[in-house]
Design a protein that fits this description.
Largest sheet: 2 strands, antiparallel
CATH superfamily of the largest domain: Nitrogenase molybdenum iron protein domain
Distance between the termini: 35 Å
Number of strands: 6
Structural class: alpha/beta
Strand content: 5-15%
CATH topology of the largest domain: Rossmann fold
């Protein structure tokens, strides 16, 4: 598989080995199953109930707004730990999981990069906020780490 370039132009190499995924968003959990990635799901929210026959065997790890971080722990999620080995900064969204100031220091320590809180509504809501959300992300990209808190 070839490297992939995201919407911001960053080049990403494919994940090595089997990814371990925790999905806390019901529609995305169902989509992952439909895409044939159910075997990679190692955690879900209590609201992720479809497809029932598949997700019933996947451990619950809180909900979209109250994720059980102790159960999820960053080193156990390959998709996160592999993706954060070369970042300039870590963006902690206030939604759907409610990251707060207390998580900033933990993220900086864990990933060795500056971390900051960002407005979760601007980056995770669908519909009319999508265009404004892209502009918000573009402004964050231009700001130096630590310069803007959201």
């Amino acid at each position: 598989m070839n490297d992939l370039r995201d919407a911001l132009g960053t080049l990403h190499s494919p994940c090595e080995g089997e990814p371990r995924i925790v999905s806390l968003v019901p529609s995305l959990t169902e989509l992952l199953c439909q895409l044939g990635l159910a075997a990679n799901l190692v955690g879900r929210s209590g609201f992720c109930i479809h497809p029932r026959e598949i997700v019933q065997g996947i451990p619950k790890m809180g909900g979209t707004k109250d994720a059980d971080i102790a159960a999820i722990r960053y080193p156990q999620i390959d998709a996160v730990s592999q993706g954060l080995t070369f970042v300039d900064r870590v963006l902690l969204s206030t939604e759907p999981y409610r990251f707060a100031e207390q998580h900033v220091a933990e993220a900086e320590s864990r990933f060795g990069s500056p971390a900051q809180l960002i407005d979760g509504e601007m980056v995770s809501w669908y519909g009319s906020r999508a265009a404004a959300g892209l502009r918000y992300l573009a402004r964050l990209r231009q700001a130096r780490p630590g310069q803007s808190r959201g």
